[in-house]
Amino acid sequence: MTAAHPLPAAGFPAAPPAAPAAAPGQDASAPAYGSPAAARGTEGPEPSAVEAVVRAALAEDLPWGDLTSTALIPPHTRATAFLTAREPGVFCGGAVIEAAFRALDPQAEVLLLVKDGDRFDAGGLLAEVSGNARAVLGAERVALNLVQRLSGIATLTAAFVAETAGTKARIADTRKTTPGLRVLERWAVRCGGGSNHRFSLSDAVMAKDNHLALLAAAGGDLAPALRAAKARLPHTVHFEVEVDRLDQIEEVLAGGADTVLLDNFTLEDLRRGVEQIAGRALTEASGNVRLDTVRAIAETGVDIISAGALTHSVRALDLGLDVGFDDGGEPDARA
């Protein structure tokens, strides 16, 4: 188990965070969180994964405490924060809110008024948090940054899914995620009704143009090279190969591809590619996938549409977190 970042209690200084320790048998250079298992549960990311992201963010934002709150706010003051929507959307990030505020005040009272995946209207009250005022103010920005981004991803994904309603195409994300936030961003895609692609380079084979160019430079035919590579893998490993021309499809199928990625194809070539593959492999479309193009892409008959835009250029949803002191700033009775 990785060591948690030490965090200041309610705004008091703490030592700078130490580097996380690697678990037994784990490469010390490997990330301490964001495992595929953490992202694939139906109930959301594992709590330990959420906590690791939140603690890293808090250690970055108040490494030795919140100087402003420590200087201005009496130590036992209580406060309540209200998370409200300034525009409609799809919510994601309940676990983040709980983890952020309870990291600084373990007794913080967190009331989530919507669940991950719920739609909400502008003006809606999404959550209430009560606790030590210094802790509430210290966690405010981290909680809001994360929940705004995650809800933005969920909302955009839901829009893509709505555009493809009535087709068989699934909307999927890509590895174009924010470093360190993949486990959360992939869950946000799920909350919006989308599907997850491979979580990491360790999850599946995906031979893209650069891989194929290096194979070609080494000489020999593509199909035998792909078959030899697949033979070296466990039978459970999914094998996907990218093509950017119709004349590559047969060789890739002969190489044993489970999925053929049709990259930057025109709509007509997507239709022809789907017809040519004829169910011998899954078909995935990527490239130029936007809200104004995704319907037409889905109507070509592809099985999967992967869109990096879901995570790499999403706009954070406009949510507000308003903080007020309880009972005129009376001391915290729990102290």
Keywords:
335 residues, alpha/beta, Aldehyde Oxidoreductase, domain 3, TIM Barrel, six-stranded parallel sheet, four-stranded antiparallel sheet, 12 helices, elongated
Write the layout of secondary structure elements.
Blueprint: H1 36-40, H2 47-61, H3 67-72, E1 78-85, E2 89-90, H4 94-104, E3 109-112, E4 119-120, E5 125-132, H5 133-163, E6 170-172, H6 182-191, E7 205-207, H7 209-217, H8 222-231, E8 239-243, H9 249-254, E9 259-263, H10 267-277, E10 282-286, H11 294-298, E11 304-306, H12 309-312, E12 319-325
Parallel strand pairs: 6-11, 7-8, 8-9, 9-10, 10-11
Antiparallel strand pairs: 1-5, 1-12, 2-4, 3-5
Helix pairs in contact: 2-4, 2-5, 4-5, 5-6
Offer a quick outline of the entry.
By secondary structure, this protein is α/β, with parallel strands linked by helices. It has two domains: 36-160 and 316-328, Alpha-Beta Complex (Aldehyde Oxidoreductase, domain 3), CATH 3.90.1170.20; 163-312, Alpha-Beta Barrel (TIM Barrel), CATH 3.20.20. The protein has helices at 36-40, 47-61, 67-72, 94-104, 133-163, 182-191, 209-217, 222-231, 249-254, 267-277, 294-298, 309-312; strands spanning 78-85, 89-90, 109-112, 119-120, 125-132, 170-172, 205-207, 239-243, 259-263, 282-286, 304-306, 319-325.
Largest sheet: spatial strand order: 6-11-10-9-8-7
CATH top level assignment of the largest domain = Alpha Beta
Assign the structural class, choosing from mainly alpha, mainly beta, alpha/beta, alpha+beta, or little secondary structure. alpha/beta
Number of helices: 12
Strand tally? 12
| CATH topology-level name of the largest domain | TIM Barrel
CATH superfamily membership of the largest domain, which one?
Aldolase class I
Strand percent estimate = 15-25%
Please tell me the total number of domains: 2
Radius of gyration: 24 Å
Shape: elongated
The proportion of residues forming helix, as a percent range, comes to 25-40%
Query: Poorly predicted ranges (pLDDT <50, ≥5 residues)?
Result: 1-41, 328-335
Task: State the CATH architecture of the largest domain.
Answer: Alpha-Beta Barrel
Mean pLDDT: 87
State the end-to-end CA separation: 31 Å
Biggest sheet, in brief? 6 strands, parallel
SSE sequence, one letter per element: HHHEEHEEEHEHEHHEHEHEHEHE
